[in-house]
Amino acid sequence: MSGDTEAITVLISPVVHAQGFDLEEVIVHRSGDRSVVRILVDRDNGTELDVLADLSREISAVVDDAPQPILGALAYTLEVTSPGVDRPLTAPRHWRRAHGRKVIAQISSGGAADSPTEKVAGRIGRLNEDETVVDLVITHGGRSDVRRVDLADVASAVVQVDFGGPSADERELCGLLEKNVKGNT
Fold it and tell me: What total number of domains does the chain contain?
């Protein structure tokens, strides 16, 4: 983490958390005499553009009023956004927030970092109470089954765009109520 990235992260974390968001990532990109500061935030139940705009104004005020200039004398552009649909699932909260969505995951067969992996495509079902195991609903030939996967065995996972939505069987096995099905676009 660069000095600017670390300083901004420390400075804005209280503001982000006070508004009920998780700070997913801070990226500072310098280009000539300008910087682009990209801040990715997320929270349970998603967010709205108006809320992100308000958060952006609060973050901008905090950065501008910092006792020591973080970005030196450089002008900066601030971007506050939420992760895209293709964001990797790297923490239990990411799996919880993607409940019901399609995912492609590389599952380690031996639990070690250098173990062979198996590519699994399915829909994200329930997480266990301590958020260490997820049910993946796998559908083959019109039949859906649940595969329990320890999150520690997931080498990588990315949500997929799904224009069709879950079938009735997938909704039931994922634990989705009809009114709670999330769009996957």
Answer: 2
